[in-house]
Amino acid sequence: MTLHPSAKLAQRLALGVPALLLGGAYLSQYGFGLYPCEMCWWQRYPHFAAIGLALLSTVVEPKRLWIALAALAILISGAIGAFHAGVEYGWWEGLTACSTPTLGGGDPLEAIMNAPLVRCDEVQWSLFGISLAGWNFLISSVAGVAILLLLRRKPA
């Protein structure tokens, strides 16, 4: 079954938005040393699922269902981002544990001792006063709603 143009756009957004957000997360991590905390990882998992669901929608019927599920995964990541941003801004209590990136190779004890400690309640980077978690919330929420609205359009 061929998708309506608006559903095809929804499919592209369902694949492109999480891919770009994950690409930005990995660029910030490996290119700029902004290591993820535990809640940062939580935001990535639904984006991985969204990519898988969007790819599934290219080959398995009912395509609109897989696109809608990808949109829901994107919205879940946005909700986690909203919670994380609230923790960063001190609006509510979050995790008390800190996390460190997993480093492979060499002496494991040395890797642990030299690994940066990343707190979930501290903003590592912001733009216009909005943290990375806040940007994930904004972008994911708008994209998820847009995808669902595009899927609701009826063929002409």
UniProtKB/TrEMBL annotation:
Pfam families referenced in this protein's UniProt entry, alphabetically: DsbB
Membrane topology label: Multi-pass membrane protein
Record keywords: Membrane, Transmembrane, Transmembrane helix
Domain of life: Bacteria
Chief localization: membrane
Annotated transmembrane regions: 12-32, 44-60, 67-87, 125-151
Keyword Transmembrane included in the entry's annotation: yes
Location(s), subcellular: Membrane
Record bears the keyword Manganese: no
InterPro entries: DiS_bond_form_DsbB/BdbC (IPR003752), DsbB-like_sf (IPR023380), Uncharacterised_DsbB (IPR024199)
Protein name, UniProt field: Dihydroneopterin aldolase
